[in-house]
Amino acid sequence: MTARTPFFDRLAERIERIDSVLSVGLDPDPARLPEDLRDRDLPRWAFNRRIIDATHEHAAVFKPNAAFYEDPEGWRALEETIAYAHGKGVPVLLDAKRADIGNTTRRYADLVDPDRDGPAADAITVNPYMGGDSLQPFLANETAGVFVLCRTSNPGGSDLQDLPLETGEPVYERVAALADLWNDHGNVGLVVGATQPEELEELREIVPDLPFLVPGIGAQGGDAEPAVEYGLAEGVGLINSSRGIVFAGDDAAGEGADAYASAAGQAAKRLKSRLNRYRA
Ligand SMILES: O=c1ccn([C@@H]2O[C@H](COP(=O)(O)O)[C@@H](O)[C@H]2O)c(=O)[nH]1
């Protein structure tokens, strides 16, 4: 399989090979990095490298959130991170929640273009609020995964996403139905929070074939069991934990970056096993 193999084929192969649906979120909050890395060149990259070394055997994907990299040093750290994850054979899902008018989205779509000047992510999260044309440059890329925000994990997700339309269906259900229509190339998935177990179940009925990215277990209090039960389509989907893994070593603060990495490795292994107990 190469970077030009459709994302969900690569993901299915990776899930089967390492027996894991775990997405390891790489959100290297600079304020929480181990002290012995803070004066390094690119501390976020130094941190991520150790986390990747410690967790890659358990990671179906790595999911860096773009918010933690949006400054000049950060983008360098992100590119190093993507290249290093690829070197370990792990796809990268960039949680960037992008979309804009078509002309602008074409620039955003460069982030998942394997021909770009620099390492490309394998999949990306996108925001459906501007409609189908705003997503077209992502959807047209047959090799990259496109995860559409549907019912998010945050408390305020209900403010707009739960509003009933004239048909009575909530907005998030319409988003799911549209995402299914946008899936001409088999490259579309949904983002549905683990904090919303009823919506997970409902959405699985509406779009039986779309894989979900399910964030919100761990630090946000979501339940892992429904996340696995409803998040996977034909066994393919991703359950994410970010802070719960990369900062599992907070209790070992003062013992250095290696102690952090070791704690992250153990946390990833434990969570993978727990998720596997719920897989059919
Ligand atoms: O609905 C959503 C969409 C995205 N996220 C992102 O996932 C991780 C979750 O981090 P944790 O530390 O495991 O809580 C983070 O990058 C969020 O921005 C989400 O939580 N909910």
UniProtKB/TrEMBL annotation:
This is Orotidine 5'-phosphate decarboxylase. NCBIfam families: pyrF_sub2. InterPro entries: Aldolase_TIM (IPR013785), OMPdecase_AS (IPR018089), OMPdecase_type-2 (IPR011995), OMPdeCOase_dom (IPR001754), RibuloseP-bd_barrel (IPR011060). It catalyses: orotidine 5'-phosphate + H(+) = UMP + CO2. Belongs to the OMP decarboxylase family. Type 2 subfamily. Its EC number is 4.1.1.23. GO terms for molecular function: orotidine-5'-phosphate decarboxylase activity. Residues 21-257 form the Orotidine 5'-phosphate decarboxylase domain. It holds the Pfam family OMPdecase. GO terms for biological process: 'de novo' UMP biosynthetic process. Pathway: Pyrimidine metabolism; UMP biosynthesis via de novo pathway; UMP from orotate: step 2/2. Keywords: Decarboxylase, Lyase, Pyrimidine biosynthesis. The active site is at K97 (proton donor). It is an enzyme of class 4 (lyase). Coiled coil: none annotated.
